[in-house]
């Protein structure tokens, strides 16, 4: 279920403003076309601004909602003739035609909510693998709860490998991904940092970074005696 807040100057019922709403079962609340209405619509998952008649007022409202930090998808409701007025200046996430069918409305709502969720960073900003916890927001790493004193490049190297446990990377790939394409040092740099990183992981856990002979390195979430 998607809670919809419809901001409109019209006194019509939701099913008249957007007939497809009558077919779907999403809860709809109607509010005046003003930014202050968001105080009453705080539980909304999607906000739809009625722009069928007043393009200028609707655009200003959308811009104001965006400036005040709206945290849910913002959609403009237009007539087919009104599509000529919509532009990126409206700052909306999408638009709807008042003639759209239930299937289209459902799809647009689903996509709008899905895009927002995928764009939100993970609250913890953490990568977890084989007892290693990497916090990207604070640039810290822990091994079984114990902090690892890593340099910036050691941290970046560990983070990159841990994001893809079991995947093998050549030294050239790691050099490009961690140091960047504008780095002119040789692949020997990767070997040096791997050696330092293993030393900080300690003898019991150094094989978390496994050597793949004649290829490169991988983060070894499932260690075995055969790993070098």
From TrEMBL:
This is DNA-binding response OmpR family regulator. Residues 124-221 bind DNA. Residues 124-221 form the OmpR/PhoB-type domain. SMART domains: Trans_reg_C. It comes from Neomicrococcus aestuarii. GO terms for molecular function: phosphorelay response regulator activity; transcription cis-regulatory region binding. The keyword Transferase does not apply. It comes from the Bacteria. Gene3D superfamilies: 3.40.50.2300, Winged helix-like DNA-binding domain superfamily/Winged helix DNA-binding domain. GO terms for biological process: regulation of DNA-templated transcription. Keywords: Activator, DNA-binding, Phosphoprotein, Transcription, Transcription regulation, Two-component regulatory system. GO terms for cellular component: cytosol; protein-DNA complex. The lineage of its organism: Bacteria, Bacillati, Actinomycetota, Actinomycetes, Micrococcales.
């Amino acid at each position: 279920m998607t809670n919809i807040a419809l901001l409109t100057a019209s006194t019509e019922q939701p099913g008249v403003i957007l007939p497809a709403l009558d077919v779907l079962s999403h809860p709809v609340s109607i509010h005046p076309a003003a930014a202050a209405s968001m105080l009453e619509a705080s539980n909304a998952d999607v906000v739809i601004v009625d722009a069928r008649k007043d393009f200028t007022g609707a655009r200003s409202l959308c811009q104001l909602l965006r400036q005040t930090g709206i945290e849910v998808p913002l959609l403009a409701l237009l007539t087919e003739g009104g599509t000529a007025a919509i532009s990126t200046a409206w700052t909306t996430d999408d638009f709807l035609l008042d003639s759209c069918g239930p299937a289209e409305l459902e799809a647009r709502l689903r996509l709008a909510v899905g895009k927002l969720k995928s764009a939100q960073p993970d609250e913890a900003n953490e990568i977890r693998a084989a007892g290693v916890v990497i916090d990207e927001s604070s640039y810290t790493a822990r091994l079984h709860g114990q902090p690892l004193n890593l340099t910036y490049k050691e941290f970046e190297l560990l983070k990159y490998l841990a994001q893809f446990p079991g995947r093998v990377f050549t030294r050239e790939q790691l050099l490009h991904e961690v140091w960047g394409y504008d780095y002119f040092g040789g692949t020997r740099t990767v070997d040096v940092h791997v050696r330092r990183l293993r030393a900080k992981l300690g003898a019991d856990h150094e094989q978390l970074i496994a050597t793949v002979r004649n290829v490169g390195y991988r983060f070894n979430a499932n260690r075995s005696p055969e790993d070098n």
